[in-house]
Design brief:
By secondary structure, the chain is an all-alpha fold. It contains 5 helices and no strands. The protein is globular, with a radius of gyration of 11 Å. The mean pLDDT is 93.
Length: 69
């Protein structure tokens, strides 16, 4: 699955920079960048935090990811 593109689009739609999202998730910018660039696969825990950050359900986030595939 292409999580990176979906996460990047969510971030852009919310007018956030990668460093802003990383700070809100309490992770390094480089780690977040690796996920957005599909160099690292996100964990379920990570996806839960992202869904919470954007006030959406985890299932909605996964549907978004699938839509971008």
């Amino acid at each position: 699955m292409n999580y990176g593109f979906a996460l990047k689009e969510l971030r852009r739609l919310n007018n956030l920079k990668a460093q802003d999202v990383a700070a809100k998730l309490k992770i390094s910018k480089s780690y977040y960048s690796e996920i957005e660039n599909n160099k690292r696969r996100p964990s379920v825990t990570f996806l839960e935090k992202v869904a919470k950050l954007y006030y959406i359900k985890l299932s909605a986030l996964i549907e978004l990811v699938e839509a971008y595939n």
